[in-house]
Amino acid sequence: MTIKRGEGRRLVPLDALGDHEGTDLVPVDTLSADQIYERRWALTVLEEVLARLSDEYRAVGKAALFDRLKKLLTDEPDRPSQAEIADEFGMTENAVKQAFHRVVVNPNGTRAYVANAFSSDVSVIDTSTNTVVATVALENSSYGVAITPDGGHAYFTNPTGNSVSVIDTSSNTVVAIVAVGTSLTA
Q1: According to the CATH classification, is domain 102-186 in 3.90.550.10?
Q2: Nearest to 157 by CA among 127, 135, 178
């Protein structure tokens, strides 16, 4: 004859166990289900962007630089400084800063804009599906990116063209190219 699981043992209600054992049965995570979902969604978007950037850097033989730049995202005590990365790769500290600031998310969180440093275009990512929804051609490769507070325009630095490309984010088209002089670094 087979004994059923728990047969012959005294049942203890969880409420009684918590009181009796001094165990705190309060959930460890105090976030709401919506907050947990949004946090996971943001992490998924970040993972997707990092994977795409990693592929881009590897395609042009700069995987080691990407791996070092990625460490700047953490708050670990052993993370390198931008100056250390610059020394390691024979770059200026400004060039490292520029390489680090290549992605921006619009104010409402629906689109991410990626400055594709090794090609003359910009990728627009739908953050709800993690897919590229547009590729905007530029005259030169871009490195830095900023977005207006209302999300209406994105600005991409073009160091080789000494200019800034202005993109209308509603149509994903270049609406202006602003000449800014020589030695553009950000």
Answers
A1: no
A2: 178
